[in-house]
Amino acid sequence: MTVSVEQQERASGQGLGGEAQAPLLKALREAVGTTQVRADSDTRRRYAASTASRSTLPLAVVTPGCQAEVVALVKLAAQYRVALYPVSTGKNWGYGDACAVGAGQLIVDLSRMNRILSVDSELAYAVIEPGVTQQQLSDYLRTHKLPFWIDCTGAGPDTSFMGNILERGFGHSPYGNRLQHISGLQVVLANGEVLSTGFGHYPQARTTHLFPYGVGPYLDGLFTQSNFGIATRVGIWLMPKTACVNHFLCTVERHADIGAVIDALRPLRLDGTLRSILHIGNDLRVISGGRVFPREQAGRETRLPDALRGELRERAGIGAWAISGALYGSAAQVAAARAALKQALRGTAAKASFLSERKLRIGAALAALLGRSARGQRLRAQVGLGEALFAMNRGVPNGRFLAGAYWRRRGGLPAGFPQRANPALDQCGMLWVSPILPLRGADVMELHAMVDPIFKQYGFDLFVTFSMINERALGGVITVAYDKEDPAEVERAKLCYQNVFERVMAAGYIPYRVGNQSMSALDPHGDVYWQTVARIKQALDPDGLIAPGRYQPGFGR
Amino acid sequence: MTVSVEQQERASGQGLGGEAQAPLLKALREAVGTTQVRADSDTRRRYAASTASRSTLPLAVVTPGCQAEVVALVKLAAQYRVALYPVSTGKNWGYGDACAVGAGQLIVDLSRMNRILSVDSELAYAVIEPGVTQQQLSDYLRTHKLPFWIDCTGAGPDTSFMGNILERGFGHSPYGNRLQHISGLQVVLANGEVLSTGFGHYPQARTTHLFPYGVGPYLDGLFTQSNFGIATRVGIWLMPKTACVNHFLCTVERHADIGAVIDALRPLRLDGTLRSILHIGNDLRVISGGRVFPREQAGRETRLPDALRGELRERAGIGAWAISGALYGSAAQVAAARAALKQALRGTAAKASFLSERKLRIGAALAALLGRSARGQRLRAQVGLGEALFAMNRGVPNGRFLAGAYWRRRGGLPAGFPQRANPALDQCGMLWVSPILPLRGADVMELHAMVDPIFKQYGFDLFVTFSMINERALGGVITVAYDKEDPAEVERAKLCYQNVFERVMAAGYIPYRVGNQSMSALDPHGDVYWQTVARIKQALDPDGLIAPGRYQPGFGR
Asked: In chain A, what residues touch B217 (CB-CB under 8 Å)?
């Protein structure tokens, strides 16, 4: 059952929020400063805004400035028996945004803690706080002329680097399996102690940010997708720039042919020729990068009519599927990888093209020459996509890949897009289902055949990408993009999401990450894994102070 | 204080062991079969044998045959309040061998659980039990003509694959960071429940062995270097064979030059040109591969006199340091990596040679021609080392690299060596200190300068390797090899070990793994990390049934 923000506001006036909380708010203000505690209705509603159309109104929002203040907050939480809900920058688009799982919690927004504490230019790592964004770190490296690239996700320039890692997101570079590229975490525990993982708890250690495992049980994984503590610092590894980067784009004209192409690429991912995370997206993922749903042409349809979809495909110069990835190394290494890739794709339906900076420049010039002709437009679209991907592969984040969230938005892409994209405040409706699949064509075909009819049934366009998240698995991201201002469409979107979620789950394609609305669905049978997680929670946070309900399916049952 | 096996045996006659344990032994025999429970003195002494000269006599030894029997054992342990000490095959050489941390525990030897449960030839993984050895899995792949190699360690063919992973050992191939190449663990918990990690707890999951993280907190790290459960099954990733492998060997003549060579190689490890774990060993690591300490020539010295060391170096055709690694890929990829390596080493004191199968064959033929001449002997030694390394890089384990343990053994290398090497039963004295260092020449020089005088002071030869365990850190392994039959030398060895351990620890080069004798030294100050570990232990095993004292520094204080 969904409770509206208005209902929550009324309830909180008599309950958790409102005057009853005056002593708590006073104590919080003493701890972190008057201006860093906000309990006004505007602020609370802003944090409640969600792409999921499932808002939880927080009690208040606190913005601590340092680790010591986070410790103070945890102690106050224990004293006042209030739940804290930490967010790094609150931009967990499609999975809950800045919302707590439950209403009436105190949002701890860590975005002010945005220091880049150190960068080691010899051993290629940085130590950062939760508020550091992709853009900030990218800029820092360029400003200081450091020979490194960051791994970028498509979630936009102003999202938290650390927050994404803690949710086990994945990026586009060879460092895209992000959890494998951190070392040395600091976590404020519910009892107010600060835990340093790896070797970090030995003050004299020289390799805290170089060797993640330390000695004794390796705990970092505990603090990802969990509610066991508030992470305040992490060492992240930076990717050394390479002499050469080639971006490659494959187009597969017909849907029926994508499976064979994936199977042809698998050996190259397995043997390390393809070191970066390949992304395989359907036509709509590319089309939606430049525009919203063409309401005027689609009439009363809420899903693209086939003919129109074909036309948009044509205009973008793509097929049913597009595959994108990058090759890194010396010129000789990239040439060897390119040869292996061409060899592997021979006999498949994939048309591969390789982009270098030079090619992109030529393409842009040619597109200008061709002007507003169909060929000119198509080339311009291709160059635009290429430039965005190319930049991302070299550590420059881009908001363009968030565009899918805006697909059904009335009024189109807002003025600030893509640099200042904020799908939650921009009134976008978006829900993500993220099943993991074996890296096999047959599984992609099976999953697609399973979910496409559901999207059709509910009248939504199916946006889907499959990313070669490691050498053996695909991370699928299925987007339900909907019009948040149409209550009927919101209801259909929720049903569509629910249906897809249940189908992929039942079929064994379990999601790698879920939105707040699905936490309780993760443990239908009370299994040993979740019992173990609950025991650890009880040991580390017996009063349930930190993010109750977050990856805690049994909470509130 | 060390208590002799004899003292322990006398004590156990009146205490834990002996007749008092008759009901427990009876119950154990009912659970796993009469022949699978042994409490006789011979068996207990055999399991107490340790390279560390610090034995703990077990109460008895149980060898369950399947997971259900492990569950039964855990329940009996709770009922009879006896501690279980699981070992995979009990070959944790230099770190405690098959010994429990404390005396009077029930050794649960899992070596009979040695099934290779499945191998997926498309997605390149195997599911194995703890008793599966390196040799067994290697043989399986060759017998079934599967296109994969295993990652090998130098610990010998009959060591447990899984046991090494759980202790966070590292191997020689691109899969040498072994913890990054497992997915889906099964663990029997102290309450008798079976935990499946990753997606494994969803019975319908299709990617249990393909995507390690699952959804929710990632728990695998908890069950490495810990005593939180008894792991009974794991999915391990197999490395696809590549069209081409080149082994390379670098010789660095003078000690003073090794630092610069390491710095020259670092960028290649950082940028992924060197995907496998490079091993950098001093002269003695190579020399000891073929022979023991030359007592007859060394007179009363227990450490090699400089002139003799120079002579042995000369005969082996090596310098002060040898670097060994492998390049994998297509012919073009390997050629590109070779070129990058040559380029990087230009201007350093390293002499690099690249071995292919063809070169090794030619070398062997040439050595035969040269016969017993000095050049012939040198070439034969080089070919022998090359062959062993080459085999290991392609998934064939080799006992040769265990030879260091036999260095001070009277009577030389035993008849079964290296195939049946068992340093504990072969009466070898060996202690390992394994500090992690930043991947920097300066740190190698500093650490070496710190420990060499200690070895000199106590009259031991310094054996040391540094392995590029990841892109930013070196895993050092420092061996104290001693004569176990000389009580005075045993005492000196312990003092030498203790001194080295304390020095590297104080200098911030914290060990990545420790022997049983050093568990309690891991937490000198009662820090938050170890308190957190203790809280988790309390949550998962409140009665302390599983491996008390193992990576539990506070135990028994």
From this structure: 221-226, 228, 533, 536, 551
